[in-house]
Amino acid sequence: MASVLDKFRLDEQVAVVTGGARGIGLAIATALAEAKAKVVLADLDADTGEASAARLRQQGLEAHFYPLDVTQPAQAEALAQALVERWGRVDVLVNNAGICRNTPALETPDEEWRLVFEVNVHGVFWCSRAFGRRMVAQKRGSIVNIASMSGRIVNKPQPQAAYNASKAAVIHLTKSLAAELAPYGVRVNAISPGYIGTEMTKRGLETPAWRQDWLGLTPMGRLGEPAEVASCALFLASEASSYLTGSELVVDGGYTVW
Ligand code: NAD
Fold first, then answer.
1. pTM given for the model
2. From the CB of 21, is ligand 1 less than 6 Å away?
């Protein structure tokens, strides 16, 4: 019988992290690779992605970069096919690629609204469909969607209506896919981070009024680190969470308790 720590291991498994070149995605890729998965960083940003994968390999981890624009369903399909052809399996998909724009709702240009949904919602669906098909065929798999606490609450003080709505969609898409894929041995769960220190939050933290609200409204009084999201992703990706599907881990230092 496997020990509880063994259930977190991903030996022989193939794991893909979209938006894995930097930030939360890179931290998740690192955690999955430390758990012994073969990890694929799939990202729009090839320079950063190649460099990040090379750094992981220098640490003795197995990491590969593949270019991917999650807004392109054909690219998602081609990547899933390429990985199954290379390794014969794909076990974990982390839908992490995401973007945020801080434009007041009434001033939002058409294209900006569409792009946020293209990446944050449609991208999650295209990748889940492409990889989900392979996972259903092999009768195993775990999909982890990086949503946000913004899918549950409205952030203060910055405006970001498209982002908030897109993340609410990710939470409900997670439950919908979980229901459909459970009979085939594929689990689908979400993580909703609060404020995490990455490029995405850098500019906001440099704005005193934003920083004051962000930290002041977080009971723990600090930002989260990407690694603190990554350990939750490993839990959801692995057999350690074998009876969880359609669930959402809120990793927000308590922000949403008020
Ligand atoms: P980040 O901006 O540091 O990294 C995002 C990565 O996604 C980049 O490497 C970027 O190149 C990639 N990407 C963007 N568009 C893409 C596309 N079309 N196809 C493929 N890759 C693409 O952001 P982060 O803070 O690490 O955020 C990662 C995820 O976590 C996002 O989904 C974000 O919404 C979510 N999140 C972040 C926070 C936070 O406070 N940082 C909080 C809640 C949720």
1. 0.99
2. yes
